[in-house]
Amino acid sequence: xxxxxxxxxxxxxxxxxECSDIEIRSKVLxxxxxxxxxxxxxxxxxxxxxxxxxxxxxxTYIPEGYVEIKGVTKTPVITQCKLVFGNIIVxxxxxxxxxxxxxxxxxxxxxxxxxxxxxxxxxxxxxxFRFAGPIEDIxxxxxxxxxxxxxxDYLQNTMGACDKGTMGPALCEWESSEKGSLVKPPYCxxxxxxxxEYDVCRDDEEGCHHSKLYNIFxxxxxxxxxxxxxxxMVVCPE
Length: 238
What we know:
238 residues; mainly beta; 3-stranded antiparallel sheet
């Protein structure tokens, strides 16, 4: 097996290598260049706005137990927003900063104590989400010249007397043509988001804490995102 450097045709600095026993031979017979004047202006067009969302339920387990949730702040992070054949797909996560109070001594009965000390603690969790749905009233511009591959077979006829030979498409030669167009896809920009939640403090009656302490914090969130949809286009003068 050879592993020789071959000319680098890529734009990065990594070398292309021939690291197999497959031999490639190629020859350029001619070069054609065609150019013509075609003026236009590249613009970014707003196609519309779309809202997408859903319900997310998450349980945060706090093993040492807690007396009270002091506050929760949420920050949504979008990792993907794609428009796919009339549908929008949104993925990401919500960063939750949960602040809570827990007794210094987790074995005390807080209902019988006249006073007790708490530790204020803070944890950060990431809650993933994935929403999808159809888009209505937004028309996505597409180039009519879609990717296309055509194959033209040759007839091979070796039939003769006494039912010898075959007739059908030749397996050793044929013609084919391929074409495709490249366009920049539409994209989304987040402009608004809203999270409504219903919070529940629960106890699973396990772990190192008194039964009066909670150790599970459940949030049932209604999440809504609003996006603007844009697409880059070329406008030609009339």
